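User: My instructor asked us to take a sequence, write out its structure as tokens, and then describe one feature of it. I'm not sure where to start. Here is the sequence I was given:
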Amino acid sequence: MSLLDFLTIPLFQKALIGACLSGAGLSLLGVVILNLNLTTIRFALMHIALLGAAIAMVLGFPPLVGAIVGIIIASLLLGPAGDFLNMDTGVSGVLFMTGSLGLAFLIFYKAGVPAMDAFALFSGSILALSSFEVWVIGVLAVLIIFVFFLFYREIQMVLFNQELAESLGVPAKGIRNALLLLTGLAIGVNIRMVGVLLIDAAVLLPALAALSIAKSLRGALLLSAVFGIISQVGGVTFSMVYDFPSGACITLAAVLLVCLTAIYGHVVKTIKR
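Assistant: Let's start with the prediction itself. The structure tokens for your sequence are:
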């Protein structure tokens, strides 16, 4: 089948729309994660997703529902927990990560639920998106873009220096916690699209590519959205035409973008010398 033939199939139409929306909105949060040095947070949320899935299975709910609920609750608690324990948010994420993993395995052992059903969350497929899930991705993407547009200056100050932002009257902790919540929602949505193990491809790698060549936060956000769309839509398109796993193709497309931008940045620096 040609690409045009695939575009007439509703399954692939939803996949491409979901990829475009996810790339445009969700990848913006990668800039926040990298600037605030919160890379450990994504690991914490992934492990909490496993705990949420285990609890959901014990209660008779689908693992994905429990995973997303667990991620949302943890996103709300990560910032305040770090403040209460007088820890950096990234450090408190390590506590959440190890604790949730230990609890998950205790539940698997005592409740006798099939652990492999929960571990199935670590793989995903954008081709399995329903119309409702595409709408959820779209609403979340619009919300993220709206938040960045409305609170750009405040977010910029928080990313530059949180203590300075607080001294100037900016509710830095509130903004940080709101961004953590949006990050959790983004990870929860992307579990369905690419699986837990490939979250970085959807959230972090476009931002990493953007930050390597951008000269300002505004430029980094715009480039992150562009690279997110290119990697996700490009990866899905390649997977359709050449019959490869969609999650792996999205990941490799994002890795390729990071490599190309790194080479471009190096060439530009060499020329300026």
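For the description part of your assignment, you could build on this observation: The mean pLDDT is 81. Try explaining in your own words what that tells you about the chain.
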